[in-house]
Amino acid sequence: MSQSERLVLATRYRLVSEIGQGANGTVWRGHDDLLDRAVAIKELRLPDDLSENDRVLFYRRTLREARAPAQLRADSIIEVYDVVIEAGRPWIVMELIEAPSLEELIERSGPLPPERVAHIGRRLLDALAIAHKAGIVHRDLKPSNVMLDGDRVVLTDFGLAFSDGSTSLTKTGHFMGSPAYVAPEVAAGRKATPQSDLWSLGATLYAALEGRPPFERENVIATLSALANESTPPMPNAGPLAPVVSGLLEKNPTRRLSHERAVDKLDRAIAGPRSARRRGAPDPRYRLLLVVALVSAIVASCGIGATALVVGMMRESPGPSPTGRQQPDATRSAPPAPAGDTTLVIRATGDTCKIFVAEPARTLQVLANETLPRGAVRQYDQPRLNVVVYDPSACDVWVKGEQQPPGKPGQRKSYTITKKS
Q: What's an example of a GO molecular-function annotation for this chain (predicted)?
């Protein structure tokens, strides 16, 4: 066991095992004996060539600047618990997140799809908005400092962060940050700003989309030269995110996308495909469904048997069976409806529970046309309903309090329901 592994910091933080090492320190899995919880502990190490005075300055900066992110409370920002000096160097105690970093995911899986990168970018913009509002500039945003815990995206390692009004304690001549992700103006010696964090975000998103940062070369000098002199390389995998990333990678910070514009462009990129589908021609199956519902309403108003007509037409409806079905639980639970005479209750047991619910009348009333999120429940008490369930294997359905038999993936089931008064 190494000397570090035997340490107990501030009489309470016990080092358990090493998680990983970086350029400026080691991250440990630790345990807070006082509060009995697992923690992550970052041990900061300095270059050997620093003078004693420079080391003192670095320790003071670390202690001072760690106080600022420790005040931030956001799901998208790592929570800092404590900073202590032990064995002649600073240690940052923080939330333990047992999940891969974005860098690890890129190395393992290669470029990520634009949809996932858009989600990551949106969450990181939220994190930067909170930090910048508090006067904190991160200065080292890169894939290894982004943790992906399921849908949660967490910005970590504020070790190089500083807040407004603080005096820089960085020694002149020592490059702080990661060359492949640092903004051009910072690489040229200017002070880091919120706009330089946005550049680093752009380089991080580029790496997630293309599998490598935009200006990384064989060494630091070549990387900084490319950063200063070369245009942003093409982004063949970026799709709708290309304008967002290229706007964030604008070399002139005054022309770079602002936080607000980046949010707007990213939201538009995310919503673009859905908006295009809404503006385009409706799906043939959807057109047929509307025709069926309209005919059913007319026939029902004339007193003709609507059930046979609706079911018969739906059996003839064209279109491929949906794919990628999520199988429901083998055991169907009791209906969530509080009353047994409720006309219709639908609960999503999978991710592909798509429904269409309409109330037949002289004017057709469409009550629902949506794919329900898993676990969602929809309840209807109208006396007459026309219903189509596109994937009954992913839905639980109760009609007037009676649970309907489960369907098969790709099957489409329709119901015409009349609740007697």
A: ATP binding
